[in-house]
Every structure is written in C-alpha cells, then in structure tokens.
Amino acid sequence: xxxxxxxxxxxxxxxxxxxxxxxxxxxxxxxxxxxxxxxxxxxxxxxxxxxxxxxxxxxxxxxxxxxxxxxxxxxxxxxxxxxxxxxxxxxxxxxxxxxxxxxxxxxxxxxxxxxxxxxxxxxxxxxxxxxxxxxxxxxxxxxxxxxxxxxxxxxxxxxxxxxxxxxxxxxxxxxxxxxxxxxxxxxxxxxxxxxxxxxxxxxxxxxxxxxxxxxxxxxxxxxxxxxxxxxxxxxxxxxxxxxxxxxxxxxxxxxxxxxxxxxxxxxxxxxxxxxxxxxxxxxxxxxxxxxxxxxxxxxxxxxxxxxxxxxxxxxxxxxxxxxxxxxxxxxxxxxxxxxxxxxxxxxxxxxxxxxxxxxxxxx
Length: 363
What we know:
Elements: E1 9-16, E2 23-30, E3 37-47, H1 49-55, E4 72-79, E5 91-94, E6 97-99, H2 105-108, E7 122-123, E8 146-150, E9 155-156, H3 172-182, E10 190-194, H4 198-209, E11 213-218, H5 224-230, E12 234-237, H6 241-246, E13 251-256, H7 265-268, E14 271-279, E15 300-303, H8 309-321, E16 328-332, H9 335-346, E17 353-357, H10 358-361
Parallel strand pairs: 10-11, 10-13, 11-12, 13-14, 14-15, 16-17
Antiparallel strand pairs: 1-2, 3-4, 3-8, 3-17, 4-5, 5-9, 6-7
Helix pairs in contact: 3-4, 3-8
Keywords: Metal-binding, Oxidoreductase, Zinc
Domain Enoyl reductase (ER): 21-362
Organism: Fragilariopsis cylindrus CCMP1102
C-alpha cells in the first residue's frame, strides 16, 4: 500500500527560538510524500550534544526557529509508490543525515557520511537545501511529531529494538561502531575508552560485545563503579601516575570521546607499538601532540565521524543481536523539560543520554 501527498505535512515540534537555545513550541512543514519517501510518526528523539552546539549557534550561525535532533525513532505511517524497503506499520529510524549527493566516490562506496558532493551530506537539521526537500529552505530535526525521508536514508528498526533507549544508537552507537569496524578492531584486543559519557558508555558496550578487553580511562574515581557495571574489565585513573605506568603499552586502540581541551599526549604511552587512538570528540583546541610523539613507535591518531547508511543498519542489527541499547533518562516533550535536559547535558549530569518521549507528550 502506498501513500502520496500533494501538500506539505504540518508538524508540531520544539524549536530553539534564538541563540540561547531556549525551547519554544512551534509548527513546521514537512515536504509532501514523494515516490521514494517514507513518512514517519516520531515516537522518540534522543538529545545529542551536537543539538546544543548547533542550537546555540556555537558551530556557526543558524536560522531560527530551529528544530534539532538526529536520533529519531518512529513508525512508518505513509510510503511513496516506489518504496520497496518499508511498509506502513514498520519501525524506522533516522540518524544524522537525510540525503547526500549519491554520486561522489564516498556515496557510491556507502560512506554517505563523508559525501564530497556540493554541500556534503544533508544534515538532519540546520542544512540549507531546496524548498522542495525542506519547506522553508532549512532541514528541521527530530524534536517533532513527523518527518519525511527518502527510504534509502532510513534505518529499519527490529521490533525488539523499538524502545526509547535505541534512539541514541543512531548517533552515539554508530560513532563507536563505524571506527571499530573500519580500523580493524577484533576479538581479543584491548581497547581503552577515554571519556565515559554518551559516546564512551556505548563504546564500552560495543567493544565488549565484539570480544575485546575494555579499559576505561577516567580522571574521576566516582565513575569506577559505573564503568564496571557497563562491562569494563578494569579502570585506570589518569590522575594516578602509578596506574598509568602499570598500563603502559597495553592497549591496541584508544577510543577518545573527550570533547573538551585535554592532554591527548598523556594517552599515547598506553598504546602498544603500532597502536591507534581514535578521536571522535570535536575539540577545536591544540591537543598537545607532535610528530615526535608518534614516530618512534609508529602510533596513529585518526578521526571518525558517524557512519554510512549501510553501516548504520549493520550497527542496529549488531546491537539487536547483542541486546545493546543506551542508558537513558526519558523526558517529556515540553520546552521546560528539554531546557533542563540541555542544562544537565552541558554539566555532564546524565547517565548517559536523554531521550524525548515525543509521541506521548508533544502538544
């Protein structure tokens, strides 16, 4: 059964009203359902720190009001006539982008997240695009009641995974899974995880499920118990020089999710010769590493950003197989509740992600 529409779809949402990031109730328009589109009624939307950076214009100016959110989970309520991957009633997810050029080398190889076409991939929110794709000329995100997305940029969600705690996997989950697969993480290896937050706690779960020994690296003693409950084999306090000495040259990889200025050089001594530190936290400051810190032992420092559609689907299926979801707090879709969740996210006062209970509470 297919559904087509010739008019735009009025959509309730919460939107940043200005660069303070304060939320307001708002109505946006989604495009009419096209031949290859799926119309998703949104049930849950995760809160990512990227939402906050963007909503507050910290990564550059944006047009307001702006609805953010790129960890979207919902149910298909309409499909275009050419859709073959989804039917009405299916569970579906949308991550950090909703389209790309489709013709560049990266897109053709299934790495649409690195699209090198004009304008790059189409970010789920704050991406300036045509009125045809996004009424108003700017993409609007998942703190909303509905979204319309091409089926080729939509993720199939197994029924067992249709729970609020799955939503963050569409950003945090793939940001761990993609570099682990790409850089060759294998069972039996030892992985250090620096930064036990939204990304770090998913890295612990996914690396453990891949058969690795997981060592959490933290400055905070109070995180030791949480790290062990998540599945870490051990914890190294990076403020303790003896613990750092004891852990020297013990790790094949370090997954560095720290998103504030820090001394990245401190972690290099923990890597084995030819080891790799994967950087996923956006840090604009100098990290204090020179070529002489990596040359003598053939160390690598690499970056990674989310993942392509095929890989994201693979990640969801892997997490379903291993019963992996995020640790979350569920909050109502009210301006007051989301403002408070943002404040607590900034203060790192959440274990480990907030998810908005959109369908049940958005008015």
